[in-house]
Design goal:
alpha/beta; 7-stranded mixed sheet; 5-stranded mixed sheet; 17 strands; 50% helix
């Protein structure tokens, strides 16, 4: 072996020896890792198109898309009635709120504490059964590590220790620590119920508090994100792109979610509001969507902000499109197609009358030119985005935990589409000086997004990167967008339903074509029978009979309308997918009402469960990508052990 090792292998083993300095330490780790391979695979949960709906997202995170109730039923179903099990579930979801509710109605809290603690320990033990003791130990809050670890591995039938275990429970209650202990063990249950969380894009926009969702994702133990087009837009804004900033604000105004910027990210919109109030009159076509305006004055104010930022955005779009001819978006230079004297616009060779003809800041001869006041307001807004510590932290997290696509356990996950030709073959797209398709295109996009975010401020390449991020948000060949146009102008200024239709990429016309799906999977290196594409972006219209399982099961679309804005169209309030060691399940959720309803009425989100793929044999860790990583580490450790035994690498102390 001494001669067989390369210099690189010697260096690697020397580094590895720092963590495993002796044969005993390395061999012990091999034994542990080989045992891990025989554990059932951890539960994975898939969500998409959350769109700022923080309460619904938080609840599904708390109930693990129904997994926690299943664990409760399995652990204590035979000994506990449904009402008590529902109470236990709500207690795990919202321990502080539920405890406050119970204390107002429970006559004997000490007895309730004892009974509940035993049940929670049983549930937690069941949840922990698919995890190593080290993983469980890591999930336990530091101040309760000893107590919870002891109780989880207790054998109450062991009469020698029976009084010992019961005394721990008694001490928790009599010392007034029951509330804190319940919160701690509930946290352990929620952490370990879901091994990994996959977010298939579009965390931002429409709903009010995407920042709360991002805060929760940043504290999650294992999460990955596949960027959606709405995420790309916020990433664009976070770079200080004037067009990205204007586009983000326009959507927030359109959906009356300016609080997402002001309260969520501390961005000052007062200069914009003052400019809008001074410059524009109210027009109902800019009325915000939703019923959250609060008063007529609020509605008028938001509508004026919506109009002011929209005009700025349309000017900036012309500038970006003109300096990027490869975007092929000349048809979106809307302000250049207006006849300002007649109050009409030409679209696709046809003339339409505008619903609003008041353009006090637009130069007819140079529609893309910003006024000095618009420039001043825009500069202040850009600085607000650049100096929002929370927004910048969230953006860095999107980069560190996100990607254009992800492959894991035979599943190819991406938000939008892989651009296709009309015959179902993959279409070439020119972007950033390269013409690519399929996996090569997605890899190129991923690389460009990362490099450009970290370019020097005010550099040409930084501006190029900002433009590309914006293009990925709404460009007609963007895999994240997957439509021919973003019809914001038509929706507001023209109001023609036919013009407002955003034609979808050919990908969506071939979603039932298993051959097209197989070709995509093969291009990404996936050819196994159970390989799947997990997709978001386009809501599944369940109310019209649409099925989320497409292309003979090769494509699963998990966007069922999480956003309230889509509930009427889809008939449900979103899908989640759960992949356990026993199979793959789709859950169609009804709208979330409120945390208060859950706490007071135990009214969990109603969900319809569809078994998509039941496994004949339970899937073990050894059959997963995680298992492959573990086997590689085992091989490395065995190589280190051999190197120790042959004296190639020196142990750091005597191996006894």
């Amino acid at each position: 072996m001494q001669n067989a090792l390369s210099n690189e292998e010697r260096k690697f083993l020397s580094l590895l020896s720092r963590d495993y300095p002796t044969v005993v330490r390395a061999a012990s780790e091999v034994i542990s890792l080989e045992a891990q391979l025989k554990l059932p695979k951890g539960t994975e949960m898939y969500m998409s198109d959350i769109h700022g709906e923080d309460e619904a997202f938080s609840h599904i995170l708390n109930n693990a898309s129904g997994v926690i109730k299943e664990k409760i039923d399995a652990a204590i179903g035979e000994t506990t009635d449904k009402e008590r099990r529902d109470n236990i579930a709500t207690l795990i979801y919202y321990p502080k709120l539920k405890l406050a509710r119970i204390k107002r109605n429970e006559p004997d809290m000490e007895k309730w504490y004892r009974d509940t603690l035993y049940r929670l320990i049983d549930v937690c033990r069941h949840v922990c059964s698919k995890n190593t003791r080290a993983a469980v130990h890591k999930a336990i809050p530091r101040e309760y590590k000893f107590v919870i670890d002891e109780l989880l591995h207790a054998h109450f039938e062991d009469h020698n220790k029976e009084q010992y275990y019961h005394q721990i429970i008694e001490a928790i209650v009599t010392m007034g620590q029951a509330d804190d202990f319940i919160e701690a063990i509930s946290l352990v249950i929620k952490r370990l119920a879901v091994h990994k969380l996959h977010i298939i894009g579009d965390i931002f926009d429409r709903g009010s508090r995407a920042d709360i969702i991002m805060d929760k994702l940043m504290t999650h133990h294992a999460v990955d994100i596949q960027w959606g087009n709405h995420d790309m837009l916020w990433m664009c804004g976070a770079t200080g792109s004037p067009l990205g900033v204007a586009s983000v604000i326009r959507i927030c105004a359109r959906y009356n979610n300016l609080d997402a910027l002001e309260e969520g990210y501390g961005i000052n919109l007062r200069p914009l509001a003052a400019f809008a109030e001074k410059t524009y009159t109210y027009n109902s076509c800019f009325k915000p969507k939703g019923n959250n305006t609060g008063s007529n004055d609020d509605e008028v104010s938001v509508a004026k902000i919506h109009k002011a930022i929209s005009v700025i955005m349309y000017k900036l779009e012309i500038q970006v499109i003109e300096r990027n001819p490869c975007f092929d978006m000349d048809d979106r230079k809307m302000l250049m197609n207006i006849d300002y004297d007649r109050g009409t616009i030409a679209v696709d060779g046809k003339e339409y009358r505008l619903r609003d003809t008041d353009f006090p800041t637009v130069d007819k001869d140079n529609p893309a030119k910003l006024t000095s006041e618009e420039i001043e307001v825009l500069q202040q807004l850009v600085q607000g985005f650049l100096h929002s510590e929370k927004l910048q932290a969230h953006t860095r997290f999107l980069y560190s935990h996100g990607s254009a696509y992800k492959i894991e356990n035979g599943f190819l996950m991406y938000h939008g589409c892989i651009p296709l030709n009309s015959d179902g073959t993959m279409r070439e797209v020119t972007l950033g000086g390269k013409t690519l398709k399929g996996k090569a295109l997605m890899d190129h996009i991923d690389k460009m997004c990362r490099i450009r975010y970290f370019d020097e401020p005010d550099s040409i390449m930084k501006r190029v990167g900002q433009d590309i991020l914006w293009y990925l948000w709404c460009g007609k060949n963007s895999p994240m967008f997957g439509r021919a146009k973003m019809a914001t102008f038509e929706n507001v200024y023209i109001g023609d339903k036919e013009l407002s239709v955003e034609a979808e990429d050919n990908y969506y016309l071939h979603m039932e074509d298993s051959k097209a799906a197989d070709a995509i999977l093969e291009d990404f290196g996936l050819e196994c029978e159970r390989c799947r594409i997990i997709n978001g972006h386009v809501p599944v219209k369940v109310s019209k009979g649409e099925n989320p399982i497409k292309a003979d099961g090769k494509i699963i679309v998990i966007d069922g309308g999480f956003s309230r804005a889509y509930h009427a169209k889809t008939g449900i309030a979103g899908y989640t997918m759960v992949y356990t060691s026993k199979g793959v399940y789709l859950r169609a959720h009804q709208p979330f009402t409120s945390v208060k309803d859950v706490v007071y009425k135990n009214s969990d989100i109603e969900s319809k469960v569809e078994v998509f793929d039941m496994m004949k044999n339970r899937v073990l860790v050894e059959s997963t990508d995680e298992g492959n990583v573990i086997r590689e580490k085992i091989d490395d450790l065995k190589m280190l052990i051999n190197a120790y035994r042959q004296g190639i690498i020196k142990q750091r102390r005597n191996d006894n």
